[in-house]
Amino acid sequence: MSAAAGDSPPRDLARLERWVQAVIMHPGGVAQGAASVEARAELGGATVGVDDLVERSRALTATERLSIYNRAYFARLVECLAEQFSVLRQTMGDELFGEFALAYLVAYPSQSYTLGRLGERFSNYLIETRPPRRDDEAAGPGWPEFLVDLAELEWAIAEVFDGPGTENEPTLDTARLQSISTAEWPSVRFVMAPCLRLLTQRFPVNEFYGTVRKENRVPEFPAATESFMALSRRQYVVRRFPLVRAQYEVLAALVAGETVGSAIERAAQVGFEHDPNSFDFDQLAGDLRQWFSQWSAEEFFMGTSVPVRE
To answer: Looking at the whole model, is its pTM more than 0.70?
Structure first.
């Protein structure tokens, strides 16, 4: 290897390795990577050409050799995104998904030691790059918003799967739940499972997602309708639970640390405001015990802040 005039390539192998990493991981390609601040920092701020540090082969220049690794790096990241958002990829099609994924990686380069965080901003990127509405486009959420909802669901599933769960931890079982006295009930606060996630979305993406996963086909694009969902993990399996509005409001209040009494009041108020003509207070009261028993059986609760009689 020979250095450019006036410059000396680093002799430290670790610095050379970091320089190569900065070059091949640069989203603009090898030439821009070599000129980047990160790469130059490994050379003490000097500008040294790729040919001065990497030998060419018989058939390829030094830049062409490193470009192979640069393209392979981004191809692998696109593959990872395709695995994290498999239903979204199938819905969009491989080519369109690949274009969005590569553009996303340029806009939001991987910053984490783990590829598990690679797609955490993908749904936000879809929002940021939504095409301007056409004059003939109907008002309200449309196809771009549906794709955002789908991306949010798949990322929530990934987070629940990779995050902390209830496995090997004591949870609040139905028997202990039923031992809470009537007097205690309104003031109870629940300790929620760390893997519980709540989603409110503009489309019924849960049904769409399930069809793609089970039948390996993309169903017809659904009409926009507000939907609610809980996700949790039990025995390392992520489970999805469709919710009605009242269920969502109760769980959202409990996740926020509110008491059961406050959560029920919130659900009743929101339900009445949303549909005052058909909201049924008696129906809500009758459903609550069943809901809490179901949620306890699904390990939504780790415990309570009020002592429960044994």
So the answer is: yes
